[in-house]
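go over this:
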Amino acid sequence: MKLALVGDIGGTNARFALWCDDQLESVRVLASADYPGPEQAISAYLAELGLPLGAVDSVCLACAGPVSGDLFRFTNNHWRLSRAAFCRDLQVRELLLINDFSAMALGMTRLRDDERITVCPGLAEADRPVVVIGPGTGLGVGTLLALSDGSWRALPGEGGHVDLPIGSPREAELWQQLYRQLGHVRAEDVLSGNGLLLLYRSMCALDGHAPRLHSPAEVTAAALAGDALAVAVLEQFCCWLGRAAGNNVLSLGARGGVYIVGGVVPRFAELFLASGFARCFRDKGCMSDYFSGIPVWLVTAEYPGLLGAGVALQQEHSRRMGGA
């Protein structure tokens, strides 16, 4: 029986696994910079497992950006892909490309209880949309819908590129500082790994501090060590994430809940849970009561994008079998 392979392609790393019996096997993480393209990375992955070309029948890759047509250029690394050439070179019958946050959203359907932390308690309404939002290399936003046949649909979007929301005079001052540097200020400009450093530098400029931290990791480490300015930066980061998540809930009627994903927030989970996120999430004036009972979770699962790619591939096969 032929195998299925799933991949989650990021800006720095490419994660691959075999998808067998509704679960991941043989997960490996490869540095994207070490390979000229996905075909070479997958060939190396298969070789490490002792599998020849042709052993894999189906592949699903989760990729940043809109996916359509034969040619695809990865937006967060140097790779590019032709569907036809990929299938020919790897002797693969089927290649499914999906948006990375569609995969992330579908991955939420396979979470264990110990892979999420409750941020805001509540009861998810099963027939309403779910928001999946996460700061990482950028800010990803996806929507998850439960369908009547028991399957799931993930709606891709570019919600990380919406305008950064302003909810207080202090935030307006910070926005002006950011605007002087960037012009148009997107949510992603702040709510991402590099955005954390930009926010730190903007707060330093606004408050007259000389910046002494030079990477997002240094800002996070300083905050965890109790540095007051770094703590204030993370607090503002969490507040803006709350406002962005709340805006998505209102736009979508997402009473199915909110999942906070990505690689940034879990690094300071305790500070996040104690932050103003929940307050800013609900801070919508006359619509604040709408948020009563909407649950929010912080996801700690290691490979949710890979899980979602597996779900996408499995559902694609089920649809084809149903239509046969």
